[in-house]
Automatic annotation (TrEMBL):
It comes from the Bacteria. The lineage of its organism: Bacteria, Pseudomonadati, Pseudomonadota, Alphaproteobacteria, Rhodobacterales. This is Heme A synthase. The keyword Cell membrane applies. It is a multi-pass membrane protein. NCBIfam families: HemSynCtaAAlphapr. PANTHER family: CYTOCHROME C OXIDASE ASSEMBLY PROTEIN COX15, CYTOCHROME C OXIDASE ASSEMBLY PROTEIN COX15 HOMOLOG. Catalyzes the conversion of heme O to heme A by two successive hydroxylations of the methyl group at C8. The first hydroxylation forms heme I, the second hydroxylation results in an unstable dihydroxymethyl group, which spontaneously dehydrates, resulting in the formyl group of heme A. Keywords: Cell membrane, Heme biosynthesis, Iron, Membrane, Metal-binding, Oxidoreductase, Transmembrane, Transmembrane helix. Pathway: Porphyrin-containing compound metabolism; heme A biosynthesis; heme A from heme O: step 1/1. Heme binds at residues 298, 358. It comes from Pseudogemmobacter faecipullorum.
Amino acid sequence: MAGKRSIFEEVAAQPQKQALPAGGMIEQGARGARPAIRIWLALLFLMVAAMIIIGGLTRLTGSGLSITEWRPLTGAIPPMNAADWAAEFTKYQQIAQFQLTNATMTVEEFKLIYWWEWGHRQLGRAVGLIWALGFVYFLIRRQIPAGWTGRLLLVGGLGGLQGAIGWWMVYSGVDSLRISVAPYRLATHLGLAFIILGFLGWYVLLLSRSEAQLMTARRGREAKLFSMSTGLMHFAFLQILLGALVAGTDAGTAFPTWPLMNGSFIPSDIFYVTDLDGNVLPAWHAFFEGQGMTQFMHRMAGYLLISFGLVVWLRGRKSVYRETRQAFHAVMIMLVLQMLLGIYSALTLAQLHVAITHQLGAILLWVLILRARYLSQYPIAGSIRKGTA
């Protein structure tokens, strides 16, 4: 025990005070490799977006059924000689699409559609490989931030499920009298692609700031605006699914007029759907396979979406944060552009370059809604002095 200290003792002789703990302790031990993981997920995001575009081009060129088998590993090797090409072409000749619509196709013409489908599947394999390599790398090095392992596994799991659903979709056109894939399976395939894209985009946004910064930003969250933007995100997703049904039924080429549908607000035969043998199907089939019904639903949902988007924008433009206001301005602009692209696509009988631009517009709108929603939850505080408030 230390003795009593004299009142004449030098101040310098006093024991040093204990150092205060350094700031930022909330980040210690849980930071991981956030910037590197963000780059990895951003790469996957771009690859999935490319998958959606190439998938759209594959459908528009009628190439989706050119490969009639699902071989996840050996299918990566394309035909290497004339005998291989002849074998693949023979398989294609066995399905209804060839027999009913492409009976005069040559091997050289077949190669064109084959490469589209092969390229689409190959990119899917590349996405899976990049995910697996990145996940194992960060896991072995123990650089995954706390709480992120499950999120990263979710992305990989959804990617694997997407591959299976892709074959489930193709199989509907291979093992039947259909000349194309089932529209509802196409919608499922596209819908899951946008879900994966949404998770990747959201994770990239979350990793753009530290956990401490996110916790601080959340104190200023605009709960009502976040809720409304979440509703807008779900509404946009529904419209994407309806767009897939329109694509799957080729309804985009059936009504090249606007605002009426070939002279009528509601087509007179909206519930009339037949199979390839001419048999009339029950009315409920019209919601998934009828050109009139799917086109009508897509148009009506589009009007409702832009109306609700206007309501959300009116709320978003009043945000106290400049970044948030600008994000909702961008969403509204893209909503209007996407509606105009949809109208132009119908008027031009869904020409390839117009239709694929419309699909690209859906991706851009999806990303912009995600960003606006993120900034509603985690706003960026501005500075009056710097003019960023």
